[in-house]
Amino acid sequence: MKDFDGWNTLKKNIDKQEKIIFCNTREIWWCSIGMNIGTELYGKNELFERPVLVLKVFNKETIKVVPLTTKEKDGNYYASVTLRDTTSYAVFTHVRTISTKRLSRKVGRISKDQFKEIIQKYKDSL
Question: 34-62 b/e with 16+ CB inside 10 Å = b?
Answer without folding.
Answer: bbbeeeebbbeeebbbbbbbbbebeeeee
